[in-house]
Amino acid sequence: MAPIPITIVTGFLGSGKTTLILNLIPQLPQTYKVALLKNEFGDVAIDSQLASSAAISGVQELLNGCICCNLVGQLGDALDTLRNDVKPDRIIIETSGSAFPATLAMEVNRLGRETGCYVLDGVVVVIDVENWKGYEDTSYTAKMQQKYTDLIVFNKWELVDERRYDDCLDRVGDLELQIANVKSDKGRVDQSLLLGLDSALVKDGDSVHGGHSKDRPQHDHSDDHQTEVEVLSINLVSEGDTPKSVNVDSLETFLLSAPKDQVYRIKALVSASHPLASSNGDVDESAEPPGSIAKYILNWAFGRWTFTHTIANLPASTNIASSPTTESPQSPKHETILRMTIVLARDEATKWKGRIEKGGMIEQEGEGGFLIVDRVV
Questions:
Q1: pLDDT digits (tens, 9 = 90+) for 318-352
Q2: First to last CA, the chain
């Protein structure tokens, strides 16, 4: 069984973490089960009562302390309780009181290595633009801690003038690190940025391209917050009667070289002729033997990635089998062997579209095959 992806959401009290999570849930398929592990100060879990009423499958609380510090030893028991009782497709850890999540991220990684039950998908820090004063500590230690932050969400920026927002950008720049950042839309960020792609999302018919579930209410994108990110859709199509594979070496080189401040997320369905290794070296043991063509779900997030073996043939009617902008040839002599979505920082799509079309990054094993690269946002 594939490990459960874990997303960590952290930030100071009142920054808008719970709102961010509650705005995420309607974007997911109705059958997709999310569990919440919430760290509260004090012993009255008001926010957890709110979360329990909002289509979250289970909530576990750690009270009276900081999960990044004195409660970190209880993390394993809390995760196991959620895994056994809820059987979630994803666990979100929400922690208050610390903008430095390194200890928590390292503990999740340790538990993942020891149990095989969990994998860290991403670390999101929420910043309240209206009230944030900047990092109190810009030392080497603080910079090392902040390297465990994958994405900064600027929240409540609509309540201040542009000068105040620019000041927050400058304070982030004080750490001299390349950290992806995005503005929320009144506490909402698209799920394609917050979450990677996992087997449950594919199973439930979610698109590689991060579409909405038909069973959930949709959000109006009429304002310009969507320009905070740009999205490319990529199809690699093979020609011939025999099954083909992507060039794994080229793909891994691309994943290693993608800069975290330009490329936020890479999600793909990949056909490969031998088992693929995640960035930590792990190989999905359920994969077919070498020499056969198998399909894998690729989830790349801020320099880390996982390959998870999935069903060999997806129904042609699923969202994952059709590009939203281009109909790939679907005759017996044509087969799509890679479908990929790349979520990029603003003003990066044109450059990366050109690089990918130039060749050498995403290509078929051996000769042949052709790329279709479209900008969808």
A1: 333 334 444 444 444 688 889 888 888 888 999 99
A2: 34
Give the three-state DSSP class for 139: coil
In whole angstroms, give the CA distance from residue 69 to residue 221.
39
pLDDT tens sequence across 271-293: 998 888 888 888 876 666 666 78
Helix, strand or coil for residue 35? strand
Identify whether the C-beta of residue 108 lies closer than 8 Å to the C-beta of residue 120.
yes
Residues linked to residue 338 through DSSP beta bridges, in sequence order: 236, 270
Hunting for tokens 């979505």 — which residue is that? 341
By DSSP bridging, strand 263-272 and strand 370-375 are unpaired
d(CA 236, CA 336): 6
Contact residues for 331 (Cβ-Cβ < 8 A; gap 6+) = none
Q: What is the DSSP letter of 260?
A: T
Closest CA to 234 of 95, 111, 369: 369
CA dist 234 and 268 (Å) reads: 9
| Residue whose token pair is 């990054």 | 361
Number of residues that make up the chain: 377
Residue at 186: amino acid letter: K
The closest alpha carbon to 7, from 81, 88, 73, 87, belongs to: 88
Nearest CA among 262, 255, 340, 337 for reference residue 300: 255
Are the C-beta atoms of residues 195 and 314 closer than 8 Å to each other? no
Question: Exposure of 282 by Cβ count < 10 A (0-12 exposed, 13-18 middle, 19+ buried)?
Answer: middle
Q: Decide: 86 and 35 in contact? Cβ < 8 Å.
A: yes
User: Closest by alpha carbon to 92, among 187, 181, 24?
Assistant: 24
State pTM to two decimals: 0.66
Residue 286's Cα: distance from chain center in Å?
Answer: 23
Structure tokens at 128: 């309240």
Give one DSSP letter per residue of 316-335, joined into a string: TTSGGGS-SS-----STTEE
Task: Specify the amino acid at residue 209.
Answer: H
Order of strands across the sheet with 34-39?
58-62, 34-39, 90-96, 4-11, 118-128, 151-155, 180-183
